[in-house]
Write a structure and sequence with these properties.
This protein has helices spanning 77-85, 112-119, 130-143, 156-167, 204-219, 227-240, 244-255, 261-265, 284-292, 311-326; strands at 40-44, 47-54, 61-65, 89-93, 149-154, 172-178, 271-276, 298-302. The chain is an alpha/beta fold. Strand 3, helix 1 and strand 4 (89-93) form a beta-alpha-beta unit.
Length: 330
Amino acid sequence: MNTGKILIVVATAYAFSVAAAYGASFTDKRLDRHIEYPTYFAHSNGLSIAYQDFGEPDNPAVLLIMGLGAQLIHWQDNFVLGLVNKGYRVIRFDNRDIGWSEKLHGAGTPGILTGIRFKLGMGLGAPYLLDDMAADAIGLLDHLQIRQAHIAGVSMGGMIAQIMAGKHPERVLSLTSIMSSTGRKGLPEGTLEVEMRDREGLSRDEILQDIVRASKAIYAKESTRSEAEWLARAARGYDRNHYDDGFARQFWAIVDSGDRIELLNNLKLPSLVIHGSLDPLLPLPHGEDTASNIPGSTFLVLDDMGHYMDEEHHARVIDAMHTLIQSTPK
């Protein structure tokens, strides 16, 4: 870890040294066992951004950007440590409005008028856009004194990573866009849509069941994971932080940010696009469109992946990212 950071000591009954990674927790009789890694805070783009930092500080940096409503822990620990074992310094963080990062409580949430403006093709007046979230990530790199990094993002995080690569090319060594999209109008809709549900008044158990239902839907195939394991995974995120308004505002930012076609067409850096053929939220043509709009990009289709990157995909994604990074001019 770098020196000069403010360490936030996490008081948790889950910090067991016997669990080397989150994925290993399910092999233990205690389904709630996992390490809570040290979390730090950066003042970035006017906000407090929570992050975690792994690996040797002098190793090549990989910045991981999570998707809509997801927290830094949803980059599963064994995926992060797999990259560290390849010789990288890995940073994962909570996007604004989610997890332990700063919440924009007074910014409102999309409502009926937002939907009307969307149908009329008007601007939606989102309180922030994906460009602002990309600026948050650049500010985090500034805080860490990282001049250049390899950037990887899933879903909304892939969109943010695309913007970083297009608007801050001097800071980005390579781009990995996973289960994401260009945002181009006319791409096919999935069999699932993002749900904006009012869960106020629901109990913790009811919300956990709702999270499990949504997770299974985007996983998009039969799972060997038990119901208890699904619930333990959902509970880890819920108990760390649960904030539906942040989810709503992030979704607002996505639909109000337009497409990234021109940005992607002008990219001149090593790029990797990964997409699952089972993706029910952003179907495979979204990945194909992304790859076709990035000159010289590598396109990897995972036939057993939906809109959920899990343990069975980690080795292939890590190997593909490692190959990409190794091809980057020194």
